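Look over what follows to help learners.
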Amino acid sequence: MVGSVSACRDLGFVEVVVVLTISSGHSADYLTGAVAAGRENYYTSAVAAGEPPGRWYGRGAARLGLHGEVDSQVMAALYEHFLDPRDAAFGDPARWAEAPTLGHAGRRYQSEDEIYQAALGAEPDAGAERRAELRLEA
């Protein structure tokens, strides 16, 4: 995550821009829960009610149809499930399983049993000792 902060003392406001990289294994809960709502901001001494909600900016957001305030459901759909916001199912969590995703589908690694079965297929006459070795190698 990359962020920048700019302050304008004459006008009495601080603008914070956060650029996120989407990758698996991360949750949008930090940004939607800890940063955007209900927490006092560490850097700008925001009021106890929390920072104002984030807003979508830029050409990439516009191309995906993202505009206005950021809400937690949209963040979860996009950053946790990688769903395409241009699809009709994007706005309905009950339909997320049928929604297309952005980017690649992710890697699918073989399980230990799949690797073992493939090894047995390559050595169908393996004895008990060799089968034990193949299991350890899987």
